[in-house]
Write a structure and sequence with these properties.
The complex is a heterodimer of chains A (113) and B (114).
Chain A (H helix, E strand, L loop, with lengths): L2 E3 L4 E5 L4 E3 L2 E3 L5 E7 L5 E7 L5 E3 L5 E5 L4 E6 L8 E8 L7 E2 L3 E6 L1
Chain B lengths: L4 E3 L2 E4 L5 E6 L6 E7 L5 E8 L2 E5 L7 E4 L6 E5 L8 E8 L8 E2 L3 E5 L1
Parallel strand pairs in B: 2-11
Antiparallel strand pairs in B: 1-3, 3-8, 4-5, 4-9, 5-6, 7-8, 9-10, 9-11
The chains are: A mainly beta (113), B mainly beta (114).
């Protein structure tokens, strides 16, 4: 079975500060990992994904994530937060041929001026 | 840019009534999904659909639920007899391939059962 844990349901940073959103996974098979973002009143949008190529993955809007097998982690970072980054962020895992995604609980990112 | 569209955006229904949530996936996609998110909880997988049949479903997806692709463009989720605990945001998604292919999500339908 697979699972995802996102540490911190709510993260608050100042504009320009580092963003770090934590995600740990559990999987008995090699995982494929995703970060999705949800802006208010919108659907989930893919930020980036890890598919067993490079362990450091770059995504849209300046976000990146590093896959660390030894730590079973896939934390999302951005060097400098922007007000427009305020949203809900979801980490997800799959190994299914059908593409079924298992999501974490989500982290709400607040960016203060 | 192609997108997944869901209708309605909000639906209020009485307990015991049947509801149909509608989705128009991206036109050349082959895999279709329904997820739900109960308020304050995580997004949960309900069902995946490929080649006109269910390819995988969760324990949540019991006999009260059904999915259909009635024509070449729509993908529907039917709940036969709604319960209070079915109140949630329901997301439709589609992808061009299974596995690691990116899934594109609709904006969701908020279902409220009263």
């Amino acid at each position: 079975a697979q699972s995802v844990t996102q540490l911190g349901s709510h993260v608050s940073v100042s504009e320009g500060a580092l963003v770090l959103l934590r995600c740990n996974y559990s999987s008995s098979v090699p995982p494929y990992l995703f970060w999705y973002v949800q802006y208010p009143n919108q659907g989930l949008q893919l930020l980036l994904k890890y598919t067993s190529a490079a362990t450091l993955v770059k995504g849209i809007n300046g976000f990146e994530a590093e896959f660390k097998k030894s730590e079973t982690s896939f934390h999302l970072t951005k060097p400098s937060a922007h007000m427009s980054d305020a949203a809900e962020y979801f980490c997800a895992v799959t190994s299914s041929n059908t593409g079924k995604l298992i999501f974490g609980q989500g982290t709400t990112l607040q960016v203060k001026p | 840019e192609p997108e997944v569209t869901q209708t309605p955006s909000h639906q209020v229904t009485q307990m015991g009534q049947e509801v149909i949530l509608r989705c128009v996936p991206i036109s050349n996609h082959l895999y279709f999904y329904w997820y739900r998110q109960i308020l304050g909880q995580k997004v949960e997988f309900l069902v995946s659909f490929y080649n006109n049949e269910i390819s995988e479903k969760s324990e949540i997806f019991d006999d009260q639920f059904s999915v259909e692709r009635p024509d070449g463009s729509n993908f529907t989720l039917k709940i036969r007899s709604t319960k209070l605990e079915d109140s949630a945001m329901y997301f439709c998604a589609s992808s061009g391939g299974g596995g690691i292919t990116e899934a594109f999500f609709g904006q969701g339908t908020r279902l409220t059962v009263v």
